[in-house]
Records
---
Amino acid sequence: MKVEHLRHIGKQLFAEIGKTRLKPFTSESLGKGAGGDRTFPIDKKAEDIIISSLQSLNEPLSIISEEAGLEEIKGGGRKVLIDPIDGSKNAITGIPFYCTSIAVSDGDSIGSIFMGYVINLLTGDEFWAEKGKGAFFNGERIYTQKDDIFYLIAYEAQSPKNDIPKIMKLLAEAWRTRCWGAMALDISYLAYGAVSVFVTPSLSRSFDFASGYLLVEEAGGVFTDINGKSIDSVEIGLKRSAPLLASGNKQLHEKALKLLNM
Amino acid sequence: MKVEHLRHIGKQLFAEIGKTRLKPFTSESLGKGAGGDRTFPIDKKAEDIIISSLQSLNEPLSIISEEAGLEEIKGGGRKVLIDPIDGSKNAITGIPFYCTSIAVSDGDSIGSIFMGYVINLLTGDEFWAEKGKGAFFNGERIYTQKDDIFYLIAYEAQSPKNDIPKIMKLLAEAWRTRCWGAMALDISYLAYGAVSVFVTPSLSRSFDFASGYLLVEEAGGVFTDINGKSIDSVEIGLKRSAPLLASGNKQLHEKALKLLNM
């Protein structure tokens, strides 16, 4: 299992799904996926492409995917965490901001992720990271923001009513806020240096942030839960586990934590 | 001056600018534009393409553009309102969500706009509207949301600290919020039916919302200032004029106004 395998899958997804322009609310749900959200044809199509491509590798793998749940190849092995379409709500309403996220782990917790891959399905732009080898955008090394100014704070809120008040003191200090609706892209653009801080007070699932976690770590950023606690030992799986905070560097992270705990 | 002229300009912009991937903060500002924001090379390049294309039409036109300010062709005539790059902050940090917006008016106020055009510079997708003839996405007629549920509320905030509290009661009722950082696209996707309500408590400039205004009106939506007052008589120009509220339909608009005035 190499980055090239994930890139090969990404290119297939971009070719087969990237040109899709869905009209708002014309897509019927196929029911709920293993991750608890509704599955739409676009999610299912992306997942089918990824899983069949992984099967053709002929390696023992344990797949954890938002729609299908758990699936073992050749008796199971390294864990592959898949979010076939991150930003499904954007995708099904025709908003051009969504991606696919794939992460690979040789253990049971977030800390054992050693490869992460995200492809923006609208532009074909790719982000990837390998443990100890750095983070990349279309093949070029990327780094997080260096100074401690809150130029841009990105957030996601599953419940605006409950979530925004929890982070309002932090948002208030941002030059600009963004809520793009695709967590893996929010985090990827943080690794890229375009986002100062990413925060989500809602509980997220490991496949939502697994690849982003490694991208941020390898690009020089900090990624913890919303209280500043390490998420390395968070178990990989389908259940919602942690509210998240990621920052371009330690100074930004400490400033953000202070505001969140005021 | 026909929609085809604007589409021709759009295709040029997409070809020459759409593939640009800027690295965060590597772009030096060229100083402040006529609209008060800083001008970056990408803004200037887009504006140059648009203005030289309009000049070649050989029609009397009065151009009002974010960077160049006022420019008359053949003694001046119909007003053309241009935002060369809407979502400049996204563009200059490498975030793939920005567009060009062009509107044409035969009078001095927003109500006299008779043609609006928006092109998403990342996907090449085009939105346009002609007064009395409807709103279109890539040539297909589009309509705003029909029911009165706040599925998705999009907002922009020039100052998160001042602006978000003003709209918090409305945001709290949304199933999801979005802040994409490109007002003309926010409004275009409302005309498309993907956004229930768009709100910005900051004062906006006429070229920021001119094309979106016609798109929403022609797609069946409602577009006023944040207090529900008509913006038809708002003067076209470079100065910041109105905080805005747009909704998919009258019921959504009334519900939103009630929450904003609580």
---
Amino acid sequence: MDSIRVFAPATVANVACGFDIFGFAVDNPGDQVTLTISDEPGVRITDIIGDEGRLPREAARNTAGIAIQTYLKQINRTDLGLDVVLHKQMPLGSGLGSSAASAVAGVYAVNELLGRPLPVIKLLPFAMEGERIACGSAHADNVGPSLLGGFVVVRSYSPLDVIKIETSAKLYCTLVHPDIEVNTKDARFILKNEVSLKNTITQMGNVAGLIAGLMTPDYDLISRSLVDVIIEPVRSILIPEFNEAKQAALDNGALGCSISGSGPSMFALSRNVQTAEQVGAAMQQAFLSVGITSEAYVSQINRQGPKVI
Amino acid sequence: MDSIRVFAPATVANVACGFDIFGFAVDNPGDQVTLTISDEPGVRITDIIGDEGRLPREAARNTAGIAIQTYLKQINRTDLGLDVVLHKQMPLGSGLGSSAASAVAGVYAVNELLGRPLPVIKLLPFAMEGERIACGSAHADNVGPSLLGGFVVVRSYSPLDVIKIETSAKLYCTLVHPDIEVNTKDARFILKNEVSLKNTITQMGNVAGLIAGLMTPDYDLISRSLVDVIIEPVRSILIPEFNEAKQAALDNGALGCSISGSGPSMFALSRNVQTAEQVGAAMQQAFLSVGITSEAYVSQINRQGPKVI
């Protein structure tokens, strides 16, 4: 095998109550990366399709490129030549984990291409290097679920402790990406450095409830726990019509609805595909009522992580 | 049946990372309440054994008395006459949920005596009234686990949402009560009203990890998650030799160790009874090294809640 193409899923980080610790993967959208072995040593981004020229072509500054480079260094294979093609199949800067999906697809692809020298869980630190390039910090709440599939808790960074939550809950995710821009760094900058003890307690209760709800599974408990009293009240200000779109989701039967990552995309979880689609249409309508167009995606929670295609 | 005697278990609130939201019950110690139907209407505390005269004898000011009175009012049976005897079998003001155990035993007993007009879960608000008398606020992190058994999350107070965590984890609890006094209200007063966002995130990660660890069960994850970066660093100052006793517990194989409720008692969790006993001896020795005597209790996590004896 001298060429491989891998899909890695988009992800929803934070998931209402779990700021910086919680994320899940979806079946759609996602990114694809094609790797081809070349005689010339080094990692080259030979093409990026679908980014409208916005992403860096230099491997060391590209999330997939740096993830692959860091991986090759770790396994002492910097002699390897790799041509990389990125197929961006989701909006950039959307809060859907676009940079994470590219990094995960890249590092998963090279590991498969080389006959899987490392187990999948060990690929996480390399994908996190991609996040460091893209966002300024090596966070794991997008790369974790993109790599492992399902719902993931980042319990700790030092040492890194990423836990996949076992759940039999059948959940459909609606993602709506309004055509506006929110910079991830700005979205972090507006957060307060202090939280009231009262809100911390409320949030901890919801974190506990969400994990218990997923693992039981208990859909009512999941719904009651999808509440964010710390981050959403601040960041939602950056998203026009946030409250209306959220209310539209809840009115149409969603279990919960909040910001995906640092936005501007929003996610909603529902118990079946019909509800999830209805929720998406209602959310899009809310944005459209003030002239904001959007893209909507509906899919199941992704359980598998990346896959060779 | 015109008389009944009920045992209700002691409880560990907070459980390291879960301040105000988390608690569990133990098989030992606990309190007992005896109720006897009387011809004279009204609730009377006729005797309290083991409190050294410290608890109020007036029913409306006694945790068990007020819980029973509130219950009888709710079910329109204020005509009933009840003589109440409290058998206090654990230290008062110890952080082991003494007031909660009495309130739970009382309200469970009267409900059984009357042929169980209310399901057990519905007794919670009456037991919480006992806590309001004892501590100034109707908290549920002791009465919840004492009434339901096992590990309990108080997700929300408004509306009240108390969740029993289903776990097959086999855990032994060591409780050590040093013979010093910490006032619950003081212990709350020294807490800061603000928490850094960083510590909030760390704590949320541990809350998620603890619930996932219990439900899986994953003992290593339970151990890694039994960490409190918000409350313990402040409240432990009120407990002489806290750090030494905690270190002794961990050195002797405990999965984790922290303050029980608002202290001064400490709890440790272990995987078997031998470890739990060794942990208790080591913790007692740490206190004794500075001349502080203590009582130690070792038992399994209580799964049943109150029982008729």
